[in-house]
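Same chain as my last thread, 305 residues:
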Amino acid sequence: MKHGPIILDIKGNSLDDGPGIRSVVFFKGCPLSCAWCHNPESKKPGPEISFERDECVGCDTCLSVCPERALSRNLPFVIDRTRCTLCGLCVENCPSGALAMVGKSMSVDDIAAVVVRDKPFYKNSGGGVTLSGGEPTLYMDFLSALLQRLKTEGVHTLIETCGLFDFTAFSEKIVPYTDAIYYDIKIHDPDVHQQFCGVKNDRILENFVKLSAIARQNSLELLPRTPLIPNMTATTENLTAIAGFLKNQGVHEARLLAYNPLWHDKNAKIGLPDSLRKDAAMRTWMTKEEVAACKAVFSAFGINT
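reply #2:
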């Protein structure tokens, strides 16, 4: 079968991306540009080369084999990505593995061959396959074909989405073939959403309203989620607005995802500047008390988290 989008990774034995033991397929490419993105290597749809500075042994083999002379120790992130053509010679010749190609093209058959090997774990734990990213709905036809293939294997499927998609295509090509949707609502105010996520959220909220109506009429599980980001999403004003919106849609359960600062190191690996690293709050794990305070806002609206 023809290869499809670039897949960032397929991780097995996940306990955090849906019920039971799951395999998570990460798609590259996302229509948002969140300032705090926990998977910055998934933003761009194409493959990239990462550089792990701590793994480098300083042999300079990569410098000598690069035909574009795109690597230099004088560069902040070693690789000049405006010159790099992704030929992969540096990766192939790196003896320590400090250089790696991030993402590869995979077909539906390729992905299915990997994840169906864990069917016994799915069956025994009530798990399955989660399609995440990036944003998997960027590739609607491919996603539909993959979901249908997994259904023929009797595998429970779940999609994690930012909600920015064409609803007609989603309702026709995705909804009939998936069991659950984890739907991120990060920020309620459209201007603040644009400030921190790069685009307004009108369609995201509209799509959630439409999906809520569908979920109420059938067995589709729709779970809204909000990542708790210091001074961005984890404010009383934002959480109150989101909780009120969800209550109006008849939502009784949501998830609040505690902040994790480990994404900073990922930025450096793929050559992305990181001004937020200087912010003390953005370098710190969220405390249990801070998470509890956020949950209390949702509880006041009768929403379990």
